[in-house]
Amino acid sequence: MQAKIALVGFTVLALLIGGCGGGGDETTISESDFISQGNTICAEAAKEQAAVYSKLIKESEEAGQPASADPSPEVTLVNAMSSSIGAMVDELRELGAPAGKEAPFEKMLDEYEAIAKKAADQPEGFLQTKGFYAPDKRAKALGLVKCQGM
Fold it and tell me: Is residue 7's pLDDT more than 50?
């Protein structure tokens, strides 16, 4: 009886140990799924940015372009863009990269994050930069054409 209990105990322990640590058979997303789902994520971020832009244009036209707004429409737009880029990066990171594309994918995400943070910290100065040109170029190389013009 004690031998059976010990055997069951060792079996359970082996199963628990074997189930921990990932085991190295993590599946990666296929390139076609990555491009399809990634472009959907990018398109959603672009749609959010366009909605904020449209709202600002409408408000500006209705108000007759106020001389001093707090915050300015530009700052509002940059803040919305920064926020949508942050959400896009989180979703893309959760999606993951296809095998062999991990390094350029992470580089792209890191660039988007760094620029979005800088934009959030200094929205007025962001408008004088090249914006998201570098990570947009990396996104295009990965097949994420909907990330262009972020």
Answer: no
Would you give the DSSP letter of residue 149?
T
- Of the candidates 100, 54, 53, the one whose C-alpha atom is nearest the C-alpha of residue 80 is 53
CA atoms within 13 A on the CB side of 122: 9
Domain range for 63 is: 30-147
Given a contact cutoff of 8 angstroms between Cβ atoms, the answer to whether 145 and 39 are in contact is yes
Task: Give the other-Cβ count within 10 Å of 70's Cβ.
Answer: 7
- The answer to the question of residue 56 being in a domain is yes
Contact 80, 48 (CB under 8 A): yes
Q: What is the pLDDT of residues 128-148, one digit of tens each?
A: 888 999 999 999 999 999 998
